[in-house]
Each structure stands twice: as C-alpha cells, then as structure tokens.
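Think of the structure tokens as a kind of shorthand, similar to the way a musician reads notation: each symbol stands for something richer, in this case the local conformation of the backbone. In the example below we present two proteins back to back. Begin with the first one, reading the sequence and then the tokens, and try to describe in your own words what changes along the chain.
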Amino acid sequence: MRGFLHQRSLAPELLDERAYRDLEELRGNLRDMARYDRCLGVFARATRLVTAALPPTATGYIGLDVGCGSCDFIAYARQATPAVRWVGVDVSPDVLRLARQMHPEVFAICAWGMRLPLADASVDVVTCIHVLHHLNPPETIALLRELRRVARLRVVCLDLSRNVSALVGAWLLTRLTSRNRLTRADGVQSVRRAYTAAEAADLARQAGWAHFHTRLHGPFHYSLTLMQSLA
C-alpha cells in the first residue's frame, strides 16, 4: 500500500473529465463534498487562517475563493468572517450554474485560476481549497504564482494529503455516507492524486513563495499559508 502511494496518480477524476451523468448527480457530489468539509473542520480551519491575517477591528476587506465549487465555503465564510466581502472563481460553468442555484447571494465568476482577471494585489486574502490535487506540477506552480500575485495579505491553500490513512479514510467515508457515483470514485482518486505536504511546499517554492508555512492537520489534510510582505 505504501509503495502504491509513493507516486501520485495521474489518472483524472470523473469531475475533471465532466464524466457525470447529469447535473443532479453533480449537485449531489457537491453537497457531499461540502458536508465532509464542514464535518472535518476544513471550512473552520480555512477561516481561522484567513482571520489571523486581519486586525481584530478590520472591515471592508475582499476575499477571493479560487476553485469555489458549490460556493458552500463562501456561504460559511460570510458568517465566520463578516469583515470580508467574498468573491468566488471556478473554471466549470456547470458547477457555477449549480452554485448560483444553491447560493444565489454569492457572487462568482467563471475563470481559470492560473489566469485570474484581476490586478496585482487587488484582493486582501485568497483561499484555495481542494484544488491543488486536480492539477499537475506545472499547473500547480502557475496557480500558486497567480494566487501570490493577486493577494495583498495572505494566501491559504488547504488540500488532501496523500497517505495510507487518508486513502482508507476516504474509502470508508464515501461508502458509508454516500451512494453518489462521483463521490465514491473521486473521493478515493482525490487522495491518490494529492500531493504530500513536502511536495506541495516544494512547488510553492518553485512558484516564488518565500514567507509561507506548511502544516499537517491530522492524517487527511495539509495547509500552505503565504504571508505577504507589504514592504
């Protein structure tokens, strides 16, 4: 099993190939992913890392969630970080169509995270949750470089960590709690495609990240947090 995970898988996920049968199947998958992220504390962890960059009395800040998916994180963050006005970006028109139905109060645009239609340092904080494992190393480097470009204060990336515990946990969680075909297939494949924390840190350095922290959060997740210098 350890040898099986030594190299990350290059096989795409069904979601990446848009190999879903209909939008209702996709909607069910998005709901599953949001439910897991809330229950596993991913949303709470991301907002804590964001608010650590803001003064206690801060107001009027702009947050960008890249790879926003269903916009469930933004809906959560709007309550947890009232000082931040959130905008979402996702590359999939189908996902955004469902996101707008599920959260009509959230503003989101369709764009590539590697080519954001934003000026340098135009947003205060950037989050990127469960996106890196969808990308190959050159794409990941390009994305991390772009996130650094548009963020004025902080970039927070959270993703799955490739290891045996995460693989077994994903298999059990998706089979015990969902019958959705996408959830069951992609939940396991996401771990097989994931970077380790050390691999992600190396890619961040190649993207020009200098002042950043890498941290493991239990066996399932890691975070990369970039603290921008305003000097």
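Once you have a description of the first chain, move to the second and do the same.
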Amino acid sequence: MLNSKFKFPKFKYFLNNNQGSAAIEFIFIAPIMIATYFGLAEVSLLISADRDVSHATSVAADLSTQIETLGPNDIEDIFNATLAVMSVTDRQAGRLTIDVISYEKDTSGTLSEIGYAKLGSGLSTKYVPPGTISNALLNATSGLVITRIEYKYETPTGLGYYVKSPTLSETFMLKPRKSATIPFSTASISCNLVTGGANGPRANC
C-alpha cells in the first residue's frame, strides 16, 4: 500500500508549467498567416496588372485621336507605346491583344467603320457602339475612336493558389482631337508581334 504522504512533485510541475504555449499557438496560427500573405500578394499583383491594362488602353486611345489619318506606321508606333506602358515580357505579350477602331455617323444616323487595326489573337469580334450611345459622343459632325486591350493574366510561378488566370480587359472611347473623324489610310491594318529583341516585344504593322 502506498504511503498517503507520497507526493509527485515533478508531475505537478509539468501540469503547472506553461512555457512553450506561445510556440504551440504559433503552430496553429502560422498556416493561416502564411496563406493570407500569399493570397494578398497574388491579389495585389492582379490589381497592379489590371491598372496597367487600364492605363495602357487610355494611352492607346489618347495617341490614336491626335492624328488626322492613321496609317500602318502610326498604328505601329501606338501599339509599341502601349506595349511599353504595359511593360510586358515576350511571353506576356503573347497573351495580349490590342485593337483600334474608328467610326463615323452620317446625317441619317448610319454608322460606318472607317478604320481598324489589331495586334494579337484575342478580341475575336469588333466593338460596335450601342444604338443608345449619346449623340454628344458620336454624331454626324464628330466621329469616335475606340481602343481595347485584352490581357490573359497569368500568376507568377510559385503562386496561383488563389488567383488563377483571369482575362483582364478595358475599353476606351475618345473623340478625335484635330479632325471630325479619323479614317485609316488602309481600311484594315494587321500587326504581328516581334519578340526576342533587346528592346522587348514590338509590333510590326
């Protein structure tokens, strides 16, 4: 029979010892913190890319409306400026599509396309202004230039758990600056992407 006075001092010590509790708590919290960190990193990169798409589209529209007639050389310069604003690599540029379309409307309200240019394989259909578009924006005395960008975003290697591969797009409409309308010297201008150069991806129209 055990002596009733016998004690277990070491067992009582371990029960009352709370050293290391912070480490145990960290084990449970760390995965959540790490997952949140990478999630925020992915979302911030996506937001930055979306802002670049919006900025580049506005730049393409602004440059397109400053010329009275757009030719292949003008379109090439505009597309190259747009690629520079996007700061894309050769690989990224292959997932990027840019197009510019110019419209005019006669006194009877008939809409006519007077020029189109495109770089890339996306944007399979042309943008047509809706019938409800304001006359202040498109009318018989003032045409309309529309620029669009479609970018198939790809999350950097090592990420991609939260953000997969969304397609980012933006559309800008601007009125001509120096003329009533902006016709193209060639009705349809097709441009190819040139990669591998020291200055990054370029358009060849």
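Compare your description with these statements about the second chain. The chain has one domain: 19-204.
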